[in-house]
Write a structure and sequence with these properties.
mainly beta, Porin, 18-stranded antiparallel β-barrel, 19 strands
Length: 473
């Protein structure tokens, strides 16, 4: 049934695209025919015929190399998707898109490590984390929505893709996280942008199904409760959904302020304030800086009256502070970033919803689920635009609480050093639309593991290779 639904959607997209092709006819053109060709805003048919089709093919190779006799993994994924969006009809637009993924050659992703008994962490995210042995039936309807456009603003209802500090695409795998609900992007007040809405369903990255917002929490590994017992909140939380509101105020060309609040009914609330500054040293050089504050509080029982089945500790709270300072020129950008999560409690955010908004975030690891953290990260980006090559090199030190401090360390992650090298190249000419990415990540242990390999496996003393080919048309 799922295959049939996606096939129908993609067939419709294909039919809409074919409909745009004008066949030669012996009949003379009438005025009505000419109007149809240029697009008649009063005709629903012309809105579909003037629609746009675009597509995306992706190949992804990923391999994790662990040390100390622990299991290594690799995966080859290939897939593609199509998206269709109609032209405007009285201010309305309809969009539909879907993506299909194939496992074209991988190690046994359902096999647990023989020493630690722990499962694969990274490669399974290319496919379906709920079924490691699903290699072909990985299809998802990502967008199916109706948008109304008014001047510079719009409102969207249905399945869609959004990017916010807490719920975002996190598209470092085959297909991004999608959400379902109603979303407003308001831009009618000078210098102010307001975004927000109600989200009631989510299809997390690395899954093929749609879940109610509360049922989506816990699809990824759940970690431990504050007493060290395994968390049991998956399928045991109740919420009417996620209410998000964000406002961005561009004070002038140098200063931008933004504030966000995410209220997950019956579970927790997260608020963020951030200020960004950009200033010119001269015509060729600029400096930039930013400050960030995040506050979290439990709502009621944090999701469940049973402490072992709740997501956010009752009356729990968490706070995070961040800062960054940097310099950039036409080719180069360098920055120093710092983040502090206080010892008040764990910073918690469902990993199914998005990646961390902290300035010290680096791909392939998160500081979600932690408290009492000091993180320092340096980044250097170098852009060789004349040969369409972009490079980024980052190094970070993350001082975390002890792995056995369950109250502040949800996943048993030791302190670590994180190194990333990211190289991207875009083709032109015959291969225009094709781009490549090579990301190599190394995480080195910098904390006490008590000689227990479960605190190392897929966490530290490991190297992760990622090679991606993207073709957009």
């Amino acid at each position: 049934m799922k295959k049939l639904k996606l096939l129908v959607c993609l067939t419709l997209i294909g039919n809409f695209a074919i409909a745009q092709h004008q066949e030669i006819s012996d009949k003379p053109e009438t005025y009505k025919d000419k109007q149809a060709q240029i697009g008649d805003s009063t005709s629903l048919l012309s809105a579909f015929k003037s629609g746009k089709v675009n597509g995306h093919f992706r190949y992804f190779f990923m391999s994790t190399q662990n040390q100390g006799g622990l299991t290594d993994y690799y995966a080859n994924a290939a897939g593609g998707g199509l998206r269709f969006e109609t032209g405007k009809f009285h201010g309305f637009k309809f969009s539909v898109s879907g993506f299909y993924t194939f496992n074209i050659g991988s190690s046994d992703l359902g096999k647990k490590d023989s020493i630690t008994g722990q499962p694969n962490r990274y490669e399974i995210g290319l496919f379906d984390v709920t079924d490691p042995y699903n290699k072909k039936n990985i299809a998802r309807l990502e967008e199916f929505n109706l948008k109304y456009i008014y001047k510079k603003s719009n409102i969207v209802f249905g399945k869609q893709l959004i990017n916010t500090p807490f719920i975002n695409l996190q598209d470092g795998r085959m297909a991004p996280t999608s959400v379902e609900g109603i979303w407003l992007d308001f831009n009618e007040i000078k210098k102010i942008r307001i975004e927000g809405g109600w989200l009631y369903a989510i299809s997390p990255r690395g899954t093929e199904k749609w879940f109610r917002a509360d049922k989506s929490i816990g699809i990824y590994p759940v970690g431990l409760n504050i007493d060290g017992s395994k968390s049991q909140y998956f399928n045991n939380l109740t919420s009417k959904g996620i209410f998000l509101l964000g406002a961005t105020y561009t004070l002038n060309k140098n200063i931008k302020l933004q504030g966000w609040d995410m209220f997950t009914e019956n579970i927790f609330n997260t608020a963020m304030l951030q200020a960004d500054f950009v200033g010119s040293i001269n015509n060729k050089h600029k400096i930039f800086a930013a400050l960030q504050f995040i506050r979290q509080d439990a709502v009621k029982d944090g999701g469940n009256a049973d402490a072992h089945k709740t997501y956010f500790e009752k009356r729990g709270a968490a706070m995070s502070y961040g800062a960054k300072l940097g310099w950039k020129s036409k080719r180069m950008e360098a920055s120093l970033n710092y983040n502090r999560i206080t010892a008040d409690g764990r910073y918690l955010m469902p990993r199914e919803w998005g990646r961390d908004p902290m300035f010290t975030f680096l791909p392939r690891e998160r500081n979600e689920g932690l408290g009492d953290v000091h993180a320092v990260m340096g980044r250097i980006n170098y852009d060789l635009s004349e040969i369409r090559l972009k490079t980024s090199f980052t190094a970070g030190y993350y001082q975390l609480p002890d792995v056995k401090n369950y109250r502040l360390n949800k996943y048993g992650l030791p302190s670590y050093i994180h190194l990333n090298a990211d190289v991207r190249y875009s083709f032109i000419g015959f291969w225009q639309g094709l781009d490549t990415q090579l990301l190599v990540t190394a995480k080195l242990n910098a904390g006490e593991t008590y000689k227990d390999k479960k605190f190392e496996f897929n966490k530290v003393n490991m190297v992760l290779f990622n090679f991606v080919l993207n073709y957009h048309f």
